[in-house]
Design brief:
mainly alpha; Four Helix Bundle (Hemerythrin (Met), subunit A); two-stranded antiparallel sheet; 9 helices
């Protein structure tokens, strides 16, 4: 009777199980893409159902917020199971462009500019619609550029380097930028903007997030959190409490968290520039030496003339 050689298979997963493990990260990527697709559909439905526009736009924002954990988990699962692949990386990048690029740019335009009343000043209305279209496109372009830069240089260093033992993103990551726009819409209960004095700050915020994505400023990366280590039993309880608060008070919590993350990158860049200028400044002398103010040494007096001796 021939028995299988257990020494060769020990510690190695079954081939079918191994192939299934490769599919696991892609399933989370597909979930993120599905959330982006739902957001796009709900945003389009809001344009044709003005009476329930706030409901559709709120669901569009919530779908984007739910896509962020899916995007954060797929790469971590691939690294933990050692199933990273070129296909998975390309699929994740394309999914991010759809979910966190196209969907939030469309949501930003429809919520912030599409429902501006035509009864307002016609010239102002036209300018806001045109500027909103352009800035929302810049958000999409900035997100695509951010993804392309990450793909070709995943180990890029920020212009304002931080601590060497920490991990940072170079530029604001596109899920965080999309989350900021979605959290803002959700914070205002997705009621469409109908005042020009609200549309202008929204225009500035969308443009700012587009700039932060293509900037070389450092942003904190959650990749330095290692869940594979042994944690005390208090950690699951803490995570459950945080999840409950985030879900129960999602309007406020998501908005404040997104703003805090954005301003953390701006503050890090400002603090780095300030400290750099201080180092360049010449050190102030505590006891300055006064200049030499001693009077000049006078010339020696000329010798007095000697009187000639008189003759006898």
């Amino acid at each position: 009777m021939n028995l299988p050689d257990l020494s060769r298979t020990k510690g190695k997963p079954h081939p079918r199980l191994r192939r299934g493990m490769y599919l696991l990260p892609s399933l989370f990527t597909a979930g993120s893409m599905a959330a982006g697709y739902i957001s796009i559909v709900e945003t389009i439905r809001a344009t044709s159902d003005a009476g329930n526009a706030a409901v559709h736009l709120d669901w569009a924002a919530i779908a984007l917020l739910l896509a962020i954990p899916f995007d954060a988990v797929d790469g971590r699962i691939a690294r933990m199971t050692n199933t990273t692949s070129e296909f998975g990386r390309e699929l994740d990048s394309l999914a991010d462009l759809v979910t966190f690029g196209m969907a939030p740019s469309l949501l930003a335009f429809v919520w912030g500019f599409h429902f501006l009343p035509e009864s307002m000043n016609a010239q102002l209305h036209t300018h806001l619609i045109q500027a909103g279209s352009f800035v929302c496109f810049l958000f999409l372009l900035g997100g695509a550029s951010r993804l392309a830069r990450f793909n070709i240089s995943p180990d890029a260093q920020p212009r304002n380097p931080g601590r060497p033992d920490r991990k940072y993103f170079v530029g604001m990551p596109i899920p965080a930028a999309a989350g900021l726009l979605a959290a803002t819409v959700h914070f205002f209960n997705a009621y469409p903007v109908e005042a020009w004095w609200v549309a202008i700050p929204w225009l500035i915020l969308v443009g700012l997030t587009a700039f932060l994505m293509v900037s070389s400023w450092r942003f904190w990366s959650a990749k330095e959190i290692n869940f594979s280590r042994r944690h005390p039993f208090q950690l699951p309880v803490l995570l459950a409490v945080i999840a409950y608060i985030a879900i129960r008070y999602s309007n406020v919590v998501m908005f404040l968290a997104a703003l805090a993350y954005m301003f953390s990158g701006i503050w890090a860049r400002a603090a780095y520039g300030w400290s750099r200028r201080r180092r360049r400044r010449p050190p102030a002398q505590s006891n300055p030496v006064p200049p030499n103010l001693d009077p000049p040494t006078p010339d020696p007096p000329a010798p007095s003339p000697v009187a000639p001796e008189s003759g006898a």
